[in-house]
Amino acid sequence: MERLQKIIANSGYCSRRKAEELITRGEVLVNGKVVTSLGTKASYSDQITVSGHNLKLENKEYILLYKPRGVVTTTSDEKGRKTVIDLVDTTNRLYPVGRLDYDTSGLLLLTNDGELANLLIHPRNNVDKVYVAKVEGIVKVELIKKMCSGVVIDGKKTARAKAKIKKIDKKKNFSLIELTIHEGKNHQVKKMFEAIGYKVIKLKREKFGPLNLNGLKSGEYRHLTIKEVKTLYSLFK
Ligand code: URA
């Protein structure tokens, strides 16, 4: 059971604040009965009607996309660039869970399940994200350790992170580092490396919680199985 305004917002119909307004105006019905109290709880199996529209609460879609570089993580772009939503064939209004930069590739979830999306991106919930960064130059182990114990970006210290040096190419002058973080600040990985004096020249997200990119090529996607969705929810029990 959850507060009615949250269920309405999670359905993607409108914001939570707007839902509260509609409830107090008497525009919301639960199983055919008008509800005007903001404390009312309901479940996702109830029939909720908002301003005459029956919400389809069970019609959830979960897509795991291997985002290519050169695509924006938004639902529409004012500059007319290709968005992650353009890459999938769906009739639902899906939203990206978190964000990958235009020039970052890798695992991105798209869903209309606002409840799960919020759980997955909330910093309190510590969902691990694994990135592989190609950085210019040959990294120094002490600096990588320093980065993992926390560096200040945008005035705040980052949480502990884990790193593995996967490759050092002295000839071509680059290093490949696998970095596991559970926060999701803007441009976090690039800024963490910048804080220790390295420039990220390529970035890919390989894992998001228990999910990985196995079997997918850049630009491809698949639907999550019911079991995978349940596993994601079980992370927060
Ligand atoms: N960190 C970044 O710097 N960029 C991304 O796209 C994701 C994490």
Mean pLDDT rating: 94
Given helix and strand content, the structural type is alpha+beta
Total helical elements? 6
List the bound ligands.
uracil
H/E order of the elements? Answer: EHHEEEEEEEEHEHEEEEHEEEH
Query: What's the Cα radius of gyration?
Result: 21 Å
Comma- or semicolon-separated keywords:
four-stranded antiparallel β-sheet, Structural Genomics Hypothetical 15.5 Kd Protein In mrcA-pckA Intergenic Region, Chain A, 237 residues, nine-stranded mixed β-sheet, elongated, Alpha-Beta Plaits
Describe the structure.
With 237 residues, this protein is an alpha+beta fold. It folds into three domains: 2-54, RNA-binding S4 domain (Structural Genomics Hypothetical 15.5 Kd Protein In mrcA-pckA Intergenic Region, Chain A, Roll); 62-123 and 211-234, Pseudouridine synthase I, catalytic domain, N-terminal subdomain (Alpha-Beta Plaits); 128-208, Alpha-Beta Plaits. Helices cover 21% and strands 30% of the residues. The strands form four sheets. Strands 7, 8, 9, 10, 13, 14, 15, 16 and 17 form a nine-stranded mixed sheet that branches. A four-stranded antiparallel sheet has the order 3-2-5-6. It has a two-stranded antiparallel ribbon with strand order 1-4. Strand 5 (48-50) and strand 6 form a beta hairpin. The chain is elongated and about 70 Å long. It starts with a strand and ends with a helix. Uracil is lined by residues 100-101, 104, 187-190, 203. Uracil binds next to helix 5.
